[in-house]
Design goal:
alpha/beta, FAD/NAD(P)-binding domain, Enolase-like, domain 1, 3 domains, 5-stranded parallel β-sheet, 25% helix, FAD/NAD-linked_Rdtase_dimer_sf
Length: 413
């Protein structure tokens, strides 16, 4: 069997491991346009902070490819997928035949058109190791940095460079920071915390006009800057999937075995849609744990397995300036909220299930809440009043405790 994986990402790693769980000898080729072995993108802000280095950013050791019998074709782009001929055409003309193909093509930063942006010399995105290195080269202690986007990427960038520049301004059209993962109260708490670290926010606003070193906002405020970072969002890389005839609806459509609408072509990671069990809807869940899990299932099934990717949900574990956040699930339902200085907890329940959570500050034992959401545990089968206040296994029935402690299936003796 000849397997080709386009993308050298977390999903690709999962795919290799899934294939090798079923097929120890088949040929695996990984194509990647970055000239690096697989690394953890969320760590690029910590690289700029000096809290990690390129070696420790690697998601798997250097010998991962060799140990798993993987041929690498990195530093090159796949230009075309011919699903009829079952070939991948590379940017240098090389043709790679496949029996099974994985699309782990990820996403790219979305840079919206903004008037005068072509005048800005020092402009960057913040999604790859190369983009972080390029940004690092121009930073000076007196630099004024303007970040467009108060989401996860923009704020991780702010954290990564805050100690290396003079000041950071963040502009976002949304009325609060981190709107994709936090409610209003959680967002206000994080904003107050981040503002203590050399960062100012201009929300419910956007850039109307750039000059070489100023941004005039629609509100009329003028912000001077030396360096611009655009972090307004990402778009999935679906062009190869469309070429191959795969169904695409914003992301690459897959079923719960991770196969696309075209036989023998699978997809996983930030380019592919998943079924969100907390909203019962198909959507892109661009999250590292989901990417690996989806890749693992895809790889196993490419090699003849029968795995299901059926427990996907939104989940984020992230921190800014040493204040940590864990969120999961959806926020539609009845809320239980507690807060104290530096601590915020919101649990959302609906139809006898825990549907979602927001934890800020105190994130101990968050895995218990995550498990309740993922496993759809009926709340009347546990002591949820106790778990709301103090998540602990003693609130579960004996068989549940055994399942969570020993990995046994529910109902085991």
């Amino acid at each position: 069997m000849n397997y080709v994986i386009i993308g050298n990402s977390i999903a690709a790693v999962g795919c290799v491991e899934g294939i090798r769980s079923q097929d120890k000898t088949g040929s695996i080729t990984i194509v990647g346009d970055e000239p690096y072995s697989v690394y953890s993108r969320p760590l690029i802000s910590y690289l700029l902070l000096g809290r990690t280095d390129e070696k420790r950013m690697k998601y798997r050791p250097d010998d991962f490819y060799e140990k798993n019998g993987v041929k690498t074709y990195i530093g090159h782009r796949a230009e075309k997928v011919d699903s009829a001929a079952k070939t991948v055409v590379m940017d240098d003309g090389t043709v790679l035949p496949y029996d099974k193909l994985m699309l782990a093509t990820g996403s790219n930063p979305f840079v919206p058109p903004m008037a005068g942006m072509d005048l800005v010399k020092n402009q960057f995105t913040f999604m790859t190791l190369d983009s972080a290195k390029a940004l690092e080269k121009v930073l000076k202690p007196e630099s004024r940095v303007l970040i467009i986007g108060a989401g996860l990427i923009g704020l991780k960038c702010a954290e990564g460079i805050s100690e290396r520049v003079g000041h950071i301004d963040v502009v976002d059209m949304a009325d609060r920071i981190l709107p994709s993962i936090l409610d209003e109260e959680g967002s206000a708490m994080m904003q107050e915390h981040i503002e203590k670290h050399n960062v100012s926010f201009y929300l419910s606003d956007s850039v109307a006009q750039f000059t070489a070193d100023t941004a005039t906002l629609k509100s009329g405020r003028v912000l001077g800057f030396d360096v611009l970072v655009v972090a307004v969002g990402v778009r999935p890389n679906v062009e190869l999937a469309e070429q191959a005839g795969c169904e695409v609806n914003r992301g690459i459509c897959t079923d719960d075995t991770c196969v696309t609408s075209v036989p023998d072509i699978y997809a996983a990671g930030d380019c592919a849609k998943s079924h969100d069990i907390t909203t019962d809807a198909d959507r892109i869940l661009a999250l590292l744990p989901n990417a690996h899990m989806q890749g693992l299932v895809a790889g196993a099934n490419m090699a003849g397995g029968s795995e299901l990717y059926d427990k996907a949900m939104p989940m984020n574990a992230i921190g800014f300036f040493n204040l940590h956040i864990i969120t999961a699930g959806s926020y539609d339902g009845e809320a239980y909220v507690t807060h104290a200085p530096g601590v915020y907890k919101k649990l959302i329940t609906k139809e006898n299930l825990l549907k979602g959570m927001i934890l800020i500050g105190d994130i101990k034992r968050a895995g218990i809440y995550t498990s309740l959401i993922r496993e759809k545990t009926p709340l009347d089968t546990i002591d949820f009043d106790l778990i709301k206040q103090h998540p602990q296994l003693m609130a579960f029935a004996k068989t549940e405790r055994k399942a969570k402690l020993a990995g046994a299936k529910k109902g085991d003796a």
